[in-house]
Amino acid sequence: MSAATTELPAALKPWHPWLEWFGAELAAELGALIQRMQPLLGRFQGEVRGGQPEPDGLDDLRRRGRYERLLSTEWLLADELPDEFLRRAASSEHLFLAPRPRSREAEKGIVAIFDTGPLQLGAPRLGQLALWILLARRAAQTGGALQWGVLQIPGKLHDTHDVRQLKLLMKSRSYVVGDPEHADEWQAALAELPHPPGESWLIGAAPVQQPMAERWTSHRIRLCRAVQSDVLEVSLSGRAGLSHAALPLPSVKTAVPLLKGEFTSVAPATVHQRHRGRISLQRPPLISPHGAHVAVQLLDEPGVVVFPVASLAQRKPGKPRYQRWGDGLEPLTAMFAGKRLGALLGFERSMYFWQVQGLGSFIAPEVDVFRAPPGLGSWLPSAWLHNAQKQCVCVLDKDNRLVAWEASRIGTPSLEPKPPKLIDRHVMGMLQWSDSALVYAVIRSNLLVLCRLGLEASPSTVLTVCTRAEDTVVLFGGGTQWKRGIGSCAVRIAAATGGNETWRIYEPTPQAASAGMRYFESSKAWTSFELTIHRGIALVHDTKNTRFAMLSLSPDRTALVLHAKDERPEVVYTAPERIEKVSVCPNSGLAVMLTVHKKVIFYVVPERALRAVLHGEGADDAVA
Predict the structure, then answer these.
(1) Are residues 295 and 334 in contact, defined by beta-carbon separation less than 8 angstroms?
(2) Going by DSSP bridges, is the β-strand pair 110-114/199-204 parallel, antiparallel, or unpaired?
(3) Residues 6+ apart with CB under 8 A from 537
């Protein structure tokens, strides 16, 4: 649920799933128009399915009927006593099975055809916007779906799955007036649908007084603006007869962005910033544990550009810092300690800790100790734990081994670090929730186990999560909760070839969330629920709605979609172009996207706030 819907009156609750696509002010005024228009539509009256009704079992025995339903005992008389059989037939004494006819069910789908010609510009388009939402809910109530099309484009139907379809309607404009030829083509197209709609609506400028026998839709609505006032005149003709209404229009302040298809507030100009770097799309962005800094690899220089993430109260964003390492060095992983960035670089048979105090260069470990092949398309997961005296760099290699390099932060640094220490094998994921501690999930004896690791303590088991699933993936969320007790995690338990995945989300009980990091039985630590989504990318603590939710990329990679328990998916952000790489900070909910034209976009999911759109060399200026 968005911030807009939390501010709407209870009377608009039926339309919350659609009004949440709008900003608070727009949703309130559009909701008022929807509420006034709703009584005009009346109740759903779907077309009854044609054809011969199928039988639904047997009803009783009757004296009349078809001879294929004659009782078998009567046929015995025909064989043994044919004269008696004929007598019973002549006197209507034969008994027939009478099937019970199945009641015919009305079609549930709705098709709406919108006239987007010049006669519907302006105020009538606001009426079309309201009717789109009304009909989408009407179809959902009956268990069907709304399909819509444009009168001037016969035969092409669209669905109503998300806000992009509604924006498409508002952007659909034609300078051709709808004519009978368009109507004939649509009539033919509707007749060829595999499942005829229960209701069909024509919405536009056509008169509603046309005789029913000449119509090709079950309902017809005429929209026009009153001549001398800011009123929308609505005329409806349907199976229940004619009805008329004059409805007040939204204010100009609200109407203009609605007509432009701008449903949420446009980001201020200060959000758009420029930098002089040329970024690479090879690896996803790297976000610091607390979400305060972001590093993006440079394209034609060996290094990264580090962007500070401005807070909402910060008027002037900080300047990016360009950090470069030597030519020929291959970045394997990078990590933050506060605002300082360090990295593990590879060169032939050696490795080098760059900008990590106390750790220098060393001969690369054998692959059965630490495997980090060059040319990776992503950073190896890593964490830089530190305090005033000690530091530890933990890296998860390609074979799911969690290893650590330790060093002192006081005294003379070692020229060559000690060999890496093996922390655990079969590690499925980890989260650094503070400067000096992390949690990780590991498979032991076919069980997924949650463990804690700190600078001053050895790994300790916190609880057993569940039985291992095939191709297990683990995501952590709720970084601040791990400071007080147990946070949340999501485990992928099934993955289909088409990209659909089933995730089980574990939420901490109130007792576990405030009891510190001590051992717990799984049944007392968490409650769980499951979601089926398309390629989950992060588990987010949606603080505004006090819930945990899964974040995914839309199948076309243009939007961030939030999935919560028992709620419709929410499109929280739609990018101006295809998203090539994305990273999400589990502790803050900051999502950082790299687009196809090399924009860097910062979006804070729990706040539903766009923080920055960064344009570098080679990035175009499309609006975010």
Answers:
(1) yes
(2) parallel
(3) 551, 552, 553, 582, 584
Whether 166 contacts 129, CB under 8 Å: yes
pLDDT digits (tens, 9 = 90+) for 341-379: 999 999 888 999 999 988 888 999 999 999 998 888 899
CA atoms within 13 A on the CB side of 168: 13
315 three-class SS: coil
Rounded to whole angstroms, how far apart are CA atoms 571 and 254?
22
Q: Which two tokens stand for residue 30?
A: 């559009």
Residue 464 has a CB neighbour count (10 Å cut-off) of 17
Distance between CA atoms of 624 and 576, rounded to whole angstroms? 5
What Å distances lie between residue 99 and 51, 52, 57, 69, 262, CA to CA?
17, 13, 6, 9, 58
Q: What kind and span of H or E run contains 238?
A: strand 231-238
Q: What is the mean pLDDT of each run of 10 residues along the chain (624 residues)?
A: 55 88 86 93 69 60 81 82 86 83 66 94 94 94 91 92 88 89 91 88 86 79 87 88 90 89 70 88 94 93 92 72 92 93 92 89 92 88 92 94 88 70 94 92 93 85 85 86 86 86 90 67 81 93 87 92 89 90 94 94 90 80 52
Residue 351 pairs in a beta bridge with: 346, 362
Which backbone phi and psi does 489 adopt, to 5 degrees? -145, 160
Tell me the two tokens of residue 313: 């109260």
Collapsed DSSP state (helix, strand, coil) of residue 342: strand
> Which pLDDT belongs to residue 371?
93
* Cα 145 → chain centroid: 19
What pLDDT does 337 receive?
A: 92
Q: On the CB side of 488, how many CA atoms lie within 13 Å of its CA?
A: 26
DSSP reduced 3-state for 327: coil
Instruction: Please name the helix (run of DSSP H) or strand (run of DSSP E) that holds residue 571, with its range, or none.
Output: strand 570-574
Structure-token pair, residue 178 = 């709808």
Q: Measuring CA to CA, which residue among 411, 413, 376 is closest to residue 395?
A: 376
